[in-house]
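As a next step, the fold was encoded as tokens, giving this record:
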Amino acid sequence: MNPQAPVYVRAEDDAWLTVVWYHFHAWRGRRPFWAGLFTFVSGFPIAYFPYADLRLGNITLAMATTGGAGALIIGVLLITLGLALWFQQAIRVFAGVAAILLAIVSIPVSNLGGFGLGLVPAMIGGALALSWAPGQPAEEEPADRRPAAGIDMAKAEFAAGPQGVPGQREMETPAHASETTAHADGGRNSAG
């Protein structure tokens, strides 16, 4: 959720569905929702395919593997991690790493990660969980902000670069001086 987005204020004539949608939208914006959704959904095909069988007339094709119990455990863990990402945002890094590792383990254990239908969403969900960061509201800038005495604002703005990122600093030592710790004190390094 964009921290600068306007906060929803309920009007008297809003339908209950509109209110529910805006509350869900606000809830979704405060947590790694899509990471949890991808991780949650990925557990079902991983857990399902080792126990599924396909019937073609009188012929039954079983897709069971020797790691059927392992596939069930991996699927249940991914479902649990997806729910944990929704309700416990603090463990997002652990849940992201665990989802990626479980997806990799599901390749040999669970029919190539549920024929890719569980592997790909688990990898995406884990990556989204690792990359998500909670939004913070923008700080209000005082209206009468004045530069401190002795600071050239034109030079400071020029050095700031795009979007306020600091630019390159001047060299502290001349370019021809290459004295490092290896050259100091007659070529001896000191550890303290």
